[in-house]
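Quick one, probably user error.
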């Protein structure tokens, strides 16, 4: 063997080093506190330790009516002053009322001014000036914190939306408004809060049932192993039972259609045709016609004949497929370590996801606070221009635009780094897809190399090399990193294009341009098909790389033409394998799911006292079912890779060898008997 696709290998290593450098730069410039903590109008974090806002963990909006929706409140800046407070308001109040009564009710003023700007304590200042300078909010309404922000405390009373059991409130500007005016500013908050309550209960259920969930997943693992072992003996039986079951069901359908057809004979109106009665919304009308049942019978007869003919003409290929399935079970039995390799792939992908997510967060939080002029007057020419809060009061902006303020807008910057943040995020996503596909490719090539060493061992298991899985992993890393990276790069490019198309489709959903939507739909469909095709080609190319050690393009070409020369066998093997493995997944997930259902619903008397008290028994139940399916999928993916590898080796064996002493077959005796070749040559001692 020699190193393949060296140029791509070098590029891949350089990209990884650049990716690490990008992560370091993002770590230096980024600040995740900008995501964890809300930011007030001065760019200060709410609840940050060792600051004046340490005990003020919640963000308060002066005029929440200016905020269109919670999405704006969380992701963007609402065009109103925002302050960090220790708690949300719990009552209705307006600045006008508080100012009028502060002399004889100072407690109301002391409560209200905690929602004013820090240091403001001048109730004598005119209302107009206070509202112009936004020293205090014009009103406060009962609120509760959500995502560390104060939102109106909505509730429903007799189907009517209320806040603190009131349907109206004073806006502090001389108007009485309905609480429905707050709906846009806090749309859907109650539903999300209810979801958070449900989330807490689900977390509690996980906390007290995790032990039993792990036991359920362990049982799923053992059942998956047992199913793979039994496939060596039951693959053919399971397949033929299913096939004859389908034939029997279709045969019953034909008989039932004939019975209905004969039963309707002589009934008035049953001899009408579908054309005579036209289109009817009630489908039962068509079932009263003999013609309908005759059509059903003809269709079912056609399907029955097609299935029987396929079984007759493809019987030998089906036997080969079943034999390869049995051979795959035997190969895994000799190389049991392959069943646990998906754990390595999972860890590699988990590392990629974690690094991508952390880098994305640090990139998104890079930058310095940017302040902009916020003016109450729509004609202010300085509105939305950047400003410096320290020198803002000395400029002419406040004179030309009365009430204008220099408030925090977002995090950004004017440096070269900040200008290309979007490009860095794009690169982060692309390299992430490349690395994930490389991790998958490495796993497929490693498993293919291990199973190929089994097939090409003349005397099984004596000629199987020691530690075949580790040897295959070493070869893949040492010689074929470039080839694996090349295949992963092609797939990553297509996946990135699909992500961009999905983004464009999401953005253009509201448009009325039918041609644009149609074009996007066609592009999405084409690239979906292209991705599926590339995954198929890459998978078989990695198998050829593991067998012969050639570069990616050569391996992909040879694998493709080899499969095309055996296209019928490929189709039969693929469908037989898919059926049996899907059946195995359903059996494992269903069996463990039924057991978990009886356990968590206390229907197993022996373990009734051991069942934990749960808020929702379906939480651990669904976790066990989904987890069992994923466990089975992990084990069966190894089995599918084994069968695909053995199939390519089998096709190569048929084309390169003829069963003679000089060129003996490496296939098993069962495959040899199915092919009807001449007797195997004596194996060398």
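Nope, works fine. Designed sequence:
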């Amino acid at each position: 063997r020699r190193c393949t696709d060296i140029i791509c290998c070098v590029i891949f290593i350089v990209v990884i080093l650049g990716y690490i450098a990008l992560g370091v730069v993002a770590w230096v410039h980024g600040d995740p506190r900008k995501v964890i903590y809300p930011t007030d109008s001065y760019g200060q974090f709410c609840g940050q330790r060792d600051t004046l806002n340490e005990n003020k963990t919640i963000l308060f909006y002066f005029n929440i009516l200016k905020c269109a929706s919670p999405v704006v409140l969380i992701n963007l800046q609402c065009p109103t002053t925002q302050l960090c407070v220790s708690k949300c308001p719990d009552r209705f109040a307006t600045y006008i009322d508080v100012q009028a009564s502060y002399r004889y009710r100072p407690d109301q003023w002391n409560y209200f001014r905690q929602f004013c700007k820090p240091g403001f304590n001048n109730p004598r200042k005119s209302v107009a000036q206070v509202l112009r300078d936004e020293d205090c909010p014009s009103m406060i309404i009962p609120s509760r914190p959500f995502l560390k922000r104060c939102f109106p405390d909505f509730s429903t009373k007799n189907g009517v939306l209320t806040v603190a059991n009131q349907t109206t409130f004073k806006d502090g500007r001389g108007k009485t408004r309905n609480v429905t005016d707050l709906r846009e500013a806090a749309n859907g908050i109650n539903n999300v809060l209810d979801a958070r309550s449900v989330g807490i209960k689900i977390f509690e259920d996980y906390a007290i049932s995790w032990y039993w969930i792990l036991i359920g997943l362990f049982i799923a693992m053992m059942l998956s192993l047992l199913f793979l072992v039994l496939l060596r003996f039951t693959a053919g039986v399971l397949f033929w039972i299913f096939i004859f079951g389908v034939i029997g069901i279709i045969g019953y359908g034909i008989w039932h259609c004939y019975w209905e057809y004969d039963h309707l004979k002589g009934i008035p109106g049953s001899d009408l045709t579908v054309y005579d009665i036209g289109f009817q919304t009630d489908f039962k009308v068509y079932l009263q016609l003999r013609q309908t049942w005759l059509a059903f019978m003809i269709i079912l007869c056609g399907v029955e004949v097609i299935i029987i003919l396929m079984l007759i003409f493809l019987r030998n290929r089906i036997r080969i497929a079943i034999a390869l399935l049995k051979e795959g079970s035997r190969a895994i039995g000799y190389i049991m370590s392959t069943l646990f390799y998906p754990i390595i792939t999972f860890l590699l992908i988990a590392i990629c996801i974690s690094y991508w997510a952390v880098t994305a967060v640090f990139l998104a939080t890079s930058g310095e606070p940017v302040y902009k002029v916020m003016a109450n007057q729509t004609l202010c020419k300085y509105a939305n221009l950047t400003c410096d809060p320290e020198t803002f009061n000395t400029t002419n902006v406040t004179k030309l635009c009365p009430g204008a303020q220099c408030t925090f807008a977002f995090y950004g910057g004017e440096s070269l780094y900040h200008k290309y943040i979007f490009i860095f995020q794009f690169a982060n996503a692309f390299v992430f897809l490349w690395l994930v596909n490389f991790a998958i490719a490495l796993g497929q090539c490693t498993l293919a190399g291990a199973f190929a060493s089994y097939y090409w061992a003349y005397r099984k298991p004596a000629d199987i090399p020691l530690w075949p899985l580790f040897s295959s992993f070493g070869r893949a890393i040492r010689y074929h990193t470039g080839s694996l990276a090349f295949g992963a790069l092609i797939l990553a490019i297509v996946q990135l294009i699909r992500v961009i198309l999905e983004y464009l489709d999401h953005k253009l959903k509201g448009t009325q341009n039918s041609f644009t939507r149609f074009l996007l739909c066609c592009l999405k469909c084409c690239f979906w098909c292209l991705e599926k095709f590339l995954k198929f080609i890459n998978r078989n190319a990695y198998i050829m790389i593991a067998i012969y050690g050639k570069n990616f393009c050569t391996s992909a070409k040879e694998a493709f033409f080899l499969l095309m020369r055996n296209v019928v066998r490929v189709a039969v093997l693929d469908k037989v394998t898919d059926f049996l493995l899907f059946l195995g997944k359903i059996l494992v997930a269903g069996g463990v799911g039924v057991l978990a259902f009886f356990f968590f619903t206390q229907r197993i008397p022996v373990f009734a006292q051991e069942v934990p008290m749960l808020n929702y028994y379906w939480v651990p139940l669904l976790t066990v079912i989904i987890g069992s399916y994923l466990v089975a999928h992990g084990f069966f993916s190894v089995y599918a890779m084994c069968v695909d590898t053995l199939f390519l080796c089998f096709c190569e064996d048929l084309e390169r060898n003829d069963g003679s002493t000089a060129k003996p077959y490496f296939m098993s005796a069962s495959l040899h008997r199915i092919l009807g070749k001449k007797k195997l040559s004596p194996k060398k001692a």
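The chain has a mean pLDDT of 82.
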